């Protein structure tokens, strides 16, 4: 059984406990042990980076130090956390000068970044530690007939040089994982473009425009739902549709699912256990199709 | 503002100022091919943001226009531009560096100061409400472990983040 | 030891020098130096009556060593050396010093000090000349033959040049047909003629007319006397030395005997195997036995080993009327002996598949310019029609993308230099033949720098080619319409464009030939960072390499258009001819010599030698010792400076000779702190010279010593200088990337840094030692550095050197 330190970050505990729930259920069922670390903080994502890059690296490195002390690799459910921690981890591993600079800061709290651990997104854990074949064998409720639009968002893939999760131009990981559950992964235009999530709060109009395009393209391609791997993308597309309804006076009804939710369904979970009622766009259409 | 003033006093041109900062190192490599612009999902929906133009303005030394303008805050940090730039300009990082300069000069959008104050107070940029904390047990989730807010405070004061933020509050 | 008799000949430069220097005192001083038997004074010694005096003294046996003080040092040295040699004295027994630019002029404000320095200079010259030894010349034979590797434009031109000059030439091409990348390009700019057209042989009297350009197959290249062409062949081994290379060539089987084939092509008709034709970008198929295009040389088919079923089928054998097909032919090794080698392996197109956003690898309608060229060529797979490969329907909208994989720091940072012109040429050819086709070129900068090139840009605009200033971010297929769309910002309009295209043509970078690395390895050549062959000196020796007798030209050196390749090839040919011409290399043996009893088992000098002149050989007792090639050694002394055991010496720059000179220069005292400036004979001394010529003043306590290259300097030289009374030491060498012996000044720089650390250990201020990297025009920098050094030393006070040093 492989053990990981689960890094929750901010958005998931604050807004999406249902995501955490499905992820914990699925990973545990597939033999992954998750350990909760004390004293973690925000991962220092783009908003913190915007204020001060050095601070963001130091904060990310601090959190990695906690995992190093626990002797565990980190796993994240959020692409924002994945990117912040991976960028810091790999930048500091590759730049002695920068590492020393950040370690001077960390010495204030008695920490030292060693660079001995890796940071993974939970999709990587599913592919690398569980394996597509074992995943398939565990599927008790095939999702065949479901047309799902994989949405990668940005920070699971880019900057690719520091993340290395998948080919940034032609990623397959989420498509493969969707197809492993028996569903079909549909192609749609601008699949790899941004959800607009990081503009929310600064320019809601632009953020919504970006999100809207994804909803429209996916539904044109005949998708039953969009599958995300990041809580920010989820909010932008799910909550976003409510906001779009009032802004564009159009009807949007595209269910958005976390991949872990789809996975739980395929592993046989009862939707009631997954608290899916918290979704702003109801996912009944999807449930009807797969149950 | 000390650092920006120091750099101005040192007679650094704006491109040099940006290039000397963490994240800004690659700005001078830009040859204006526009790959970033056509990669940018935001540029395609608003005339107010174009990464190519932002870099060009910076290279021409239009410091005030860049730092006080709206554009630097319109980047959605998707890294499409950076991924495809043939000169390996780290455009998203350059924009962070520009935002860092703006922040040092007290120019910061309200949403960012909300993030900053939440961070200083709770160790998270989004507060976990009592309601949600209670809901965790009904969902069968383990209680949240405490955040390392004390350690965070010390890190933030070591990097000068605290001071930056306080100065912004005074403005 | 023979009885040394030194004659000193002092030129007063037409009476100029005595205005500053006390010549009587100098003459008197020199006469008192032991070994000096004759001191003469004249207004000049490098020609006319002056030089006769020297020759007279030599011929009569009055002197057997000569020191000349002359103010035109290089010119003087050459004339005097030649003259004394004719008079029977070895030219290496002459020392020339320059009392004008090296002493009187830069110190004219302190004449008394200058006079003292002049004495020191002459003393050092006399002491040195007493220790010099004669150096002889050796002759090495040079074969009257050459090998040209690569049968493209450059290789063909160079081979014809050399063959027509009378040398025996082998031209080898790795492909089955001559022509190289150019032959695929269809037509050339700026002449608009066929790619397969070359200058025909001038030995063919019937065609020597102004119109004697011919297709390769009609050019008579195969009939040039002395020229032997081997296709389907590659170099596998090169041994030997410059002028005498033994080359092993592997000739792969063609399976069709060139001497028997009558060119009826019945075999091709009979062959039942069809495979995609890579030469024609896969746009058509060809047989397993094939000819690329009808007009190639040799006009003999070749059998594709991977496709042919050989004896299982053998239909070609059955139909061949001249019994030319031999399915059992084997690869053979051919041994060639040549004096010189020209590398003309050309370049190739970059495979743009790695730029995934352009989808070259998975969209059939995204192609490169070489593939488009095949379509434009009337002999090509589409007979000149521009088609979409996916469905073979005519293309109506074409978008070209410039700088694909070039000017791209992720792949090839350089500009491939010819892609803009290729795009313009293709756009024009398409527009002229099919005005209805819409052609758009997306560019970053349009570069048309050659003669007549801008006209292509003009012509393209006249024909209605559209230009968009912007590098597209991606080519994508619309999921609904399945059309290709090029996503680009036009920076001039400030607008985003989605250009629909039937055909997207990538102006893909040009990169080094696939086997460039292998050939460089075989020949001991260097490649640049870009992977192309590195020239000896881009400005002055653009077709030479560091390996004597091996030359490079054409696209092997960098992507080039046909006219430049041709020019480059002629240049390489003339250099090779010059090398071969005398049938011998005459070389002074001013070389490094190994003292084998001290040399042992390290490999510093073979690795550091810029000319690969040192090899390790095993001695009788099993040890490895260094051995210097008398042919390859250039006499820089970098090996000397690197040897940890003092086991290697440069003739006439032995330790005792150098130390004697150092001590002599410092033995005549000065009122200011003495400084020894050791400078190389190239840029270093040129800068010192130029400061003197410009009368830039620096203290006369700065004593200049010339060595072949600063790479020869050892840390002990600094210490010896300090012991001998120097308060400071300067090392003056070439710029680190401009060293005339490649690595010397870098090595000297490192040694200076090391010595500074040592000095600190000994309690000596490291500021007493300084390295200066200069070029000729930086005389002022030298003078200023020398002034500052002396000022610094004055402030520091006298050097205290502890005994242990």
Question: Brief overview, please?
Answer:
By secondary structure, chain A is of the alpha/beta class.
Question: SS-based structural class of chain C?
Answer: alpha/beta
Q: Which protein chains are joined by the largest interface, and how many residues does each one contribute? A: A-B, 62 and 64 residues
- Average pLDDT of chain C, rounded to a whole number, is 93
From the N-terminal CA to the C-terminal CA of chain C, the straight-line distance is: 33 Å
Outline type of chain B: globular
Coarse structural class of chain B: mainly alpha
Mean pLDDT of chain B: 90
CATH-level-4 superfamily name of the largest domain in chain C: FAD/NAD(P)-binding domain
Helix content of chain B: 55-70%
Q: Tell me the radius of gyration of chain C.
A: 34 Å
Description:
- The complex is a heterotrimer of chains A (291), B (171) and C (805).
- By secondary structure, chain A is of the alpha/beta class.
- Chain A is built from 14 helices and 8 strands.
- Chain A has 2 domains: 2-122, Glutathione S-transferase Yfyf (Class Pi), Chain A, domain 2; 140-290, Rossmann fold.
- Chain A has helices at residues 11-15, 17-29, 46-51, 53-70, 79-94, 96-106, 122-130, 132-138, 160-163, 173-180, 204-220, 231-248, 259-266, 284-290; strands at residues 2-7, 32-36, 73-76, 119-121, 147-150, 184-185, 225-228, 256-258.
- In chain A, the strands form 2 sheets. In chain A, strands 2-1-3-4 form a 4-stranded parallel β-sheet, with helices on both faces. A 4-stranded parallel β-sheet of chain A has the order 6-5-7-8, with helices on both faces.
- In chain A, α4 crosses α6 (96-106), α7 crosses α8 (132-138) and α11 packs across α12.
- The longest helix of chain A is centred in the first third of the chain and has 18 residues, at 53-70.
- By secondary structure, chain B is mostly helical.
- Chain B has helices spanning 2-9, 14-19, 35-39, 51-59, 63-68, 80-84, 91-104, 110-122, 130-139, 149-159, 161-170.
- In chain B, α8 (110-122) crosses α10.
- Chain B is globular.
- With 805 residues, chain C is of the alpha/beta class.
- Chain C folds into 6 domains: 1-135, Rossmann fold, CATH 3.40.50; 145-250 and 339-345 and 513-581, 3-Layer(bba) Sandwich (FAD/NAD(P)-binding domain); 266-327, no CATH class; 351-509, FAD/NAD(P)-binding domain (3-Layer(bba) Sandwich), CATH 3.50.50; 590-649, Alpha-Beta Plaits (2-Layer Sandwich), CATH 3.30.70; 653-805, Rossmann fold.
- The two termini of chain C are 33 Å apart.
- Chain A binds chain C through residues 167, 169-170, 187-189, 220-221, and chain C through 356-357, 476, 478-480.
